[in-house]
Prior knowledge:
The protein is of the alpha/beta class. It is 29% helix and 21% strand.
Amino acid sequence: MFNPQNTFKILCLTGSNLGYKENDRICQNDSFALFEEALQIAEERKVDFILHCGNFFYSEPSKETQKKALQIIRKVCFGERKVGFSGFKMEKEGHDQNQSLNFHDPNFQIKIPIFVIHGNFEINESSPLDIFSEAKYINYFGQLSDLDSSIQPIKLLKGSTKLNLFGLGFHPILDQQSTNTSRNNSIFNISQGDSQAFNLFAIHSYSNFNQNILDPKSNFGSSQNLVLFGSESGFLNNNSNSGNLVTLKPSLPVELPDRGLSDWEENRCMILEISDNKFKIESIKFENFRKFFYNSIPSMEKNELYNLVKRECQYIKRHIPQKTRSFIFPPKFLELPLARIDITLKGNSGDLIRINENDSFFSELIANPDSAFNFIQHSFNFQDESSVQNREQNLEEIFQKEIRSFGNSTNMPSFFDQFFTMNLSQKKSKNSNSKKKRKSESKKKNPKLKKSKTKSSKKKKKDDF
C-alpha cells in the first residue's frame, strides 16, 4: 500500500485530437466529450497532475476548437485546491525557473496541472500549444531544438518521492527506423536529474519509431525507468519490461480513420501511481466514446452489390431506429456507433459505387454514414465463385454478427438476435414457399405439362438407341 503523502498520482492519456471532425454534424463534439471526461476522471480520483503524451489537438485546430479546449481546462483544472507537490523545470544546466510551471504563478489558481508533449499533428506553426503554455493553461515540454541537444528534466518532489519527468515530442527525423542515432551524448540529460529519483519518460511517435531511442544502455541511467509511449499508429503491441526499463502505452480516446484495425480497442486512460522507486497502474475505461464494429463482404459484381446494400439499408432503417433508439446506449454513451465494412469488388470497369447515395438510410444508425463502406476494386477476375454464393445471407449475417457483439458490450436486449434470425428464416421460408407456389401454379395452368415432358424424354431415349 502506497503512502498518499509520498505518492504521485498521474492520469496519463494520448491522442485527444481536439477538433477532429469539428465540422461534422454528428461527430463534431466527440473529441471534447472524451477530453472532458478524462479531466473529470482526474478530478474525481484527485490526481496530482495530468500527463498528455501527444496530439492534444488535431491538425490545424480552429479558433472555436481552441476556445472549447480553454473552457474545459478552466472548468475542471482551475480551482482553490492546492497542488500537493513541488517542482521546477530545468531550462539550462544549473538553472531552475520556477515560474515556468503554471501552478507556481500566483495569478492563477491551478488545482490539476497538465503536462503536454507535442505529437505529429502539432509540429507546424499553427499548433497553439505554445500559446496555451504561455497563458498558463498547460505546461508544454519535450521540445528537441536540434539533434545535438539534450532533453532537460522537470524535477518534481512529493514527500520522499523524487520524480524526473522527461518528454520527447514527435520529431520527424528521430521517428524513422533508419535514423543513425549515434551521438556523443544521450537524448535525455539524465545527469541533470537526481540519481536517486524515479525517471518517467513521455515519448510520442507516429509509426516507425526508432527503437534505438529506447536502448537502456545509450539513453537511460541506472535508476528505475518508465516510458509512456504515445502514438497514433504502430503501437508497441504489449507492455514490455527490459531490465530497469518498462514501456507502456495509453490507448487513444478518439478513433481516427487511418488507424490499423488491429489497433482498435476499448478506449481507456491510465492512472499511474509512483512512490519512491515503485509504481502501479490502473486502467480506466472511457464511457463517452462511440462503439466501433468492423467486417468484410466477399467479392461480387458492383450492380448486384449496390442493390443488395441499398435493400439492406432500407430494411434496417425501416425497423431498427424506431424500436431500439431509446435503449441502445446507456445515458453516458454517445448515441450512434462507428462502422466500417470492407467490400471487395470484381472487375475493372467503371467507377466504384458511391455509397453516399445511401447516406440517408444510415444517418440514424451510425455516426459515419459517408465512410462506413470501404470499397476495394481489383483489376483481375476472381476464379473462385464459391465465395459469392448466398450473397443476401452474407450481408445479413454480417449485420447479425456485429449487432449481436455490439449488443453484448452494451447490455442491449436480445431483440436484434431474434429480429435478424427471424428475418433470415422468414426470407428463406418465403423464397421456398414462392418456389413451391410457382410450381403448383404452373401445374394448374398446364396439367399436361408433366406428361408431355415424360413422353418427350422417352422418345429421346428411343432415338438415342
